[in-house]
Amino acid sequence: MKNIINKKDWWKDEVIYQIYPKSFNSSNNNGVGDLNGIKEKLFYLKELGITTIWICPIFTSPMADNGYDIADFDGINPQFGTMKDFDNLLKECKKLKIKIILDLVINHTSDEHRWFKQALCDKNSKYRDYYIFKEGKHPPNNWRSIFGGSVWEKVVGEDCYYLHIFDKKQPDLNWENKQLREELYQMINRWLEKGISGFRIDSITFIKKNADYKSLPADGIDGLVTCKHKTRNQPGIEVFLNELKEKTFEKYNCMTVGEAPGVNYTEFSNFIGKDGYFSMIFDFHYADIDVESGSDWFKRTNWTTKEFKSLLIKSQQALQKSGWGANFIENHDQPRALSKLVKKDFQTPESAMGIGSMYFFLRGTPFIYQGQELGMINAKRDNIKQFDDISSIDNFYRGIEEGFSEKEALNFVNMRSRDNSRTPMPWDNTKYGGFSNYKPWLEMTEEYPSVNTIKNTVFDFYKKMIFLRQNSKISSILKTGSIQFLSDLSDNIIAYYRELYGEKIYSFTNLSPTTEEITIPKEIIKIYLNTHTNKVLGKQFKLVPYQSILFK
Ligand code: GLC
Q1: Cβ-contact 159, 134 below 8 angstroms
Q2: CATH architecture, domain defined by 10-107+179-209+229-381+420-464
Q3: Mean pLDDT in the chain?
Q4: Which sequence spans correspond to the domains of the chain?
Q5: From the candidates 85, 202, 283, 516, which is the catalytic residue?
Q6: Would you call 475 exposed, middle or buried from its count of C-beta atoms within 10 A (0-12, 13-18, 19+)?
Q7: Active site residue 290
Q8: Ligand 1 touching residue 110 (CB < 6 A)
Q9: What is the percent of the chain where pLDDT is above 70?
Q10: Residue 203 near ligand 1, beta carbon < 6 Å
């Protein structure tokens, strides 16, 4: 079957590997990953079979939020290397036919950005209006920032506050200012001119703020309320998003994947439809199933597979109806999927393959986060001092403020911390896992001597999955076929088929710790993947905990 993906939609053909540069590979062995470190490992990625890499922010930054606080959009963070190193990486990638997409952080900058510094030191500078300042002796309202505390920070020496949805070192840009928008568009186009293939667009649903700036009833004992109600996906955002697309992305036919929390399924066609703002978006409806609201980790849920399945189905149906999805089970803000989705006693390489196979063949472009292909699990930390991530530290203290003991608060943070996925990549079993000779900036996960890239069965399995999607006889079905979920099965079984021209490929996963009996109307003709050793044949078979099969 030949490839039927339209050239314009080239990004449907990709398998994307997400790199957290600080933790990927330290070429100069100083304990911090860098661009040359990525270059050294391109053969590893090529062997895995991925076609595009998404690199988290590499720009000049004081690293308060590990690069999501940009001080110069056009400069490379010296920790990561130089522009020459980036150009070399791009060149090497081209040779190996690996595309690069970068992280585009345009909701905010660092407070160390030249624009913000100008805005602070000269009230009459044009840059004052590039940000959101409000005069007054008190914070203008009770909105809570995503990383805790008020969204308002007092300007030293003035009766005035500036807005930050995230950390106080990440002041929000004022998208209402046309000149600012133009500067951003030019910067985006400069990067596209360099030859990158697109962007992952950070926190993009936050760029429009509700102009009333009014307080709301508090939702925590800090007397504050999540700012999301007034700052996320607000009416009017469509004007900015359309303009952004028209003045940049569209001209280059680049790929764009929006980090778009807070978008209802009814609005998906605006975001990813034929004339949507982006090629695809990440949908967080099921990714955040273990916590009630993405940023309050102490609000844990007792989620069931039934609920997970129902959210997954809704998500896939909405994506199929409107456009294309960006499928993921891990990223740099999420815990390890094996720790989140699989019960403690079953966190084995086979289960890592099981959850991998469950999501990898969904309809859309699959994303793999570094280390996911090794079956990594969360790190165990017994002191808040061992954490680096600002939101982990905030959640620890908020948990305590909300009445939990230190032990409980630490437990929430251990389960959800963003540092779980940010631990250095374990390349081998030598000291510091071959990531660096010098002590890494963040502790390795304890398992690294046995869970690393040497002889790893999960890696081999991911390689097979990628091969099946990209280069096999069933590639077209797996890439472009429609998706349909099967409903008359146990709540614990996630089952779907992909169909193209009447040909169907089935994926069945037992996302539970109990063995499940399955009966299907037609006999299995061919098994493409089986994560476990028990044989699966005929019309009736058993799936052991976390087993996944792909068959015809
Ligand atoms: C996004 C990023 C996250 C970052 C935040 C602020 O959610 O994924 O890592 O902290 O935006 O830029």
Answers
A1: no
A2: Alpha-Beta Barrel (3.20)
A3: 97
A4: 10-107+179-209+229-381+420-464, 114-163, 478-551
A5: 202
A6: middle
A7: no
A8: no
A9: 99
A10: yes
The pTM is what? 0.98
Atom 7 of ligand 1, residue of closest alpha carbon: 203
Active-site residue flag, 488: no
pLDDT at 2 over 70: no
Average pLDDT of the segment spanning 494-509: 97
The residue type found at 441 is W
Q: What digits encode the pLDDT tens for the residues 294-316?
A: 778 999 999 999 999 999 999 99
For residue 380, give both structure tokens. Answer: 């165990």
Q: What is the DSSP letter of 344?
A: G
- pLDDT tier, 216 (very low <50, low <70, confident <90, very high otherwise): very high
Record: fold of 114-163: Oligo-1,6-glucosidase; domain 2 (3.90.400)
Q: In CATH, which of 2.60.120.10, 2.60.40.1180, 1.10.274.10, 1.10.3720.10 is domain 478-551?
A: 2.60.40.1180
Single-letter code of the amino acid located at 83: M
Q: Cβ(108)–Cβ(166) under 8 Å?
A: yes
333 lines ligand 1 (CB under 6 A): yes
pLDDT in tens, 186-201: 999 999 999 999 999 9
Question: How many angstroms does the Cα of residue 389 sit away from the middle of ligand 1?
Answer: 11
Please tell me if the CB atom of residue 166 comes closer than 6 angstroms to any atom of ligand 1.
yes
Phi/psi-derived region of residue 19, left when phi > 0, alpha when psi is between -120 and 50, beta in every other case: beta
